[in-house]
Amino acid sequence: MAELSTLARPYAKAAFSYAQQASDLAGWSAALATAAAVSQSEKVRELLENPQLTSEERAGKFLSICSDDLSDSGKNFIRLLAENNRLPLLPEISALFEELKAKAEATLDVEVVSARALSDAQTQQITQALSKKFEREVHLHSSVDEGLLGGAIIRAGDTVIDGTVRGRLAKLAEAMNS
């Protein structure tokens, strides 16, 4: 995966820079998400890997599928990726673009998995605490995992906070054994 990130990063940065200058981060975000979804289709992957097609033909076929969702600059970006045989990197480019966008907008998507549905007060309390901790606007997405005995797992970027009963018991057992 590190190799894909390394290859995709310059394209994501270029797309982000262009989108930021054009004040169209949301438009580029949507366009890249669409293109990434299209590129993950099995039939499209076969098309992209077909050695008999030229880069122009690959770009043309790819754009025929999703050109309605792309601006002229987005279409040029797809042609550039096709020319450099980088269309399969679209999912990684889209993910890196989203990271850059979130950093620029000072936002953070946080996933909370809890044993029971969170009340509005709990949601607000967690959002405020994480906003203060990460110094960013937090967008909280919660879900329920009935397999948890109690507590919650919070995933915010690379940070994972395990506040489940099972996680706390494991930490206690580890502390007692060391």
Automatic annotation (TrEMBL):
Highest rank taxon of the organism: Bacteria
Protein's UniProt keywords contain Transport: yes
Membrane topology of the entry: Peripheral membrane protein
Subcellular localization, as worded in the UniProt entry: Cell membrane; Membrane
The keyword Membrane is annotated on this UniProt entry: yes
UniProt keywords, alphabetically: ATP synthesis, Cell membrane, CF(1), Hydrogen ion transport, Ion transport, Membrane, Transport
Main localisation: membrane
Gene Ontology cellular component annotations, sorted alphabetically: plasma membrane; proton-transporting ATP synthase complex
A GO molecular-function descriptor: proton-transporting ATP synthase activity, rotational mechanism
Family to which this protein belongs: Belongs to the ATPase delta chain family.
Listed NCBIfam families: ATP_synt_delta, PRK05758.2-2
Function: This protein is part of the stalk that links CF(0) to CF(1). It either transmits conformational changes from CF(0) to CF(1) or is implicated in proton conduction.
HAMAP family: ATP_synth_delta_bact
Protein name per Swiss-Prot or TrEMBL: ATP synthase subunit delta
Protein species of origin: Microbulbifer marinus
Organism taxonomic ancestry: Bacteria, Pseudomonadati, Pseudomonadota, Gammaproteobacteria, Cellvibrionales
